[in-house]
Amino acid sequence: MRRLIVNADDFGLTAGVNRAIVEAHSQGIVTSATLMAGGSAFRDAVQVAPESMSIGCHVLLVDGRPVTSLPVPSLTNTSSGEFERNISGFAARALSGRIAAKEIEAEGGAQIRKLQAAGVKVSHIDTHKHTHIFPQVLRPLLAAARACGVRAIRNPYGKIGWGMIASSPRLWKRYWQTRALHVFAEKFRRAVGDAGMVTPDGSLGIVLTGALDERTFQLVLESIPEGTWELVCHPGHNDAELDKVRTRLRESRETELRLLTSPSARQILAESGVQLISYDDL
Questions:
Q1: Alpha-carbon span 44 to 54, nearest angstrom
Q2: Three-state DSSP class for 227?
Q3: What's the number of domains the chain is made of?
Q4: pLDDT of residue 181
Q5: How far is residue 206 CA from its own chain's centroid?
Q6: How far is residue 101 from each of residues 33, 81, 134, 143, measured CA to CA in Å?
Q7: Rounded to an integer, what distance in angstroms lies between the CA atom of residue 222 and that of residue 218?
Q8: Nearest 5°: phi and psi at 116?
Q9: Using CA atoms, how far apart are residues 236 and 209, in angstroms rounded to an integer?
Q10: Segment (H or E) for 109
Q11: φ/ψ of residue 85, rounded to 5
Q12: Where in the chain does DSSP place strands (E)?
């Protein structure tokens, strides 16, 4: 059996992104979303979230500000109080042991609890820019999730083959970056199992972020192995509010929204024999 979770990231980023995610769920194939506790449209997301859509916490440790009231100096810039903007800078700090595990656990827990305090039943967690791919980040986040009663987490390791992106040079660098990080895949599985948590067999679409369209969607569906997988997506409305946000995903959000709500997406799913599920079904 092949099962697929279609998860929309960045819920709470802007009202236009919120609206698009709700549309992609109610009129399309999105089954789950992950909500940003520190997003400027957090309250709007809580108000418009459909009960039928499972909602997780999109934990931010880069490109934002802390939610916790506790000091987290190893995560923030001392002058601005903000997280590291650049994922490469964050990775260097994490891999060299310069980020305190207790601060990651405190911040992750604060973000999850903010969702729960707003009445959200948190089904799972993932991270902005997939920072939990690093073992130094994963372990304290698993502890934070368990302490909050959350038992599922995104598996950030994917199954996108070179053949799928060979004709798209702009994706080559991202492909090799993610492939290099597969060295941590076994540690991820072991840590999740030891924590008594569940995770899909892997993620699809991380390499394709910003390039997901009908062609790549069909290629993804044709390549899904047996098991449970997650398709990561970023639908949104590219409006004036999004112009004010620091993000590289703008026009691509509209492209993804059209795909996710299209009859062709449902037809491709039906022809592939892949069953749509949500994180609640795990």
A1: 16
A2: strand
A3: 1
A4: 56
A5: 9
A6: 26, 18, 12, 10
A7: 6
A8: -65, -40
A9: 13
A10: helix 101-117
A11: -80, -35
A12: 2-11, 32-35, 54-59, 122-127, 202-204, 227-233, 275-277
Helices (H), ranges, 148-226: 162-165, 172-180, 185-194, 214-223
Q: Which two tokens stand for residue 128?
A: 């902005």
Could you tell me the two tokens for 122?
Answer: 């948190």
Map residue 152 onto helix, strand or coil. Answer: strand
Residue 86 per-residue DSSP state: -
Q: Record the tokens describing residue 38, joined without a space.
A: 């520190």
Spatial neighbors of 113 by CB under 8 A, at least 6 apart, are 148
**253 with 29: CB under 8 angstroms?**
no
* Calpha distance 122→144 (Å, rounded): 13
Q: Taking the model in full, what pTM does it have?
A: 0.91
Structure tokens of 46? 């809580």
Helix (H, G, I), strand (E, B) or coil at 155: coil
Q: What is the CATH number of the domain that holds 275?
A: 3.20.20.370
- Length of the chain equals 282
pLDDT tens string for the chain (282 positions)?
999 999 999 999 999 999 999 999 999 999 999 999 999 999 999 999 999 999 999 999 999 999 999 999 999 987 788 999 888 889 899 989 999 999 999 999 999 999 999 999 999 999 999 999 999 999 999 999 999 999 999 999 876 554 555 445 555 455 545 554 566 788 899 999 999 999 999 988 666 777 788 888 888 888 888 999 999 999 999 999 998 888 887 888 999 999 999 999 999 999 999 999 999 998
What span, in angstroms and rounded, lies between the C-alpha atoms of 169 and 244?
A: 29
Please give the residue range of the domain that contains residue 33: 2-281
Of 94, 86, 58, the C-alpha closest to 233 is 58
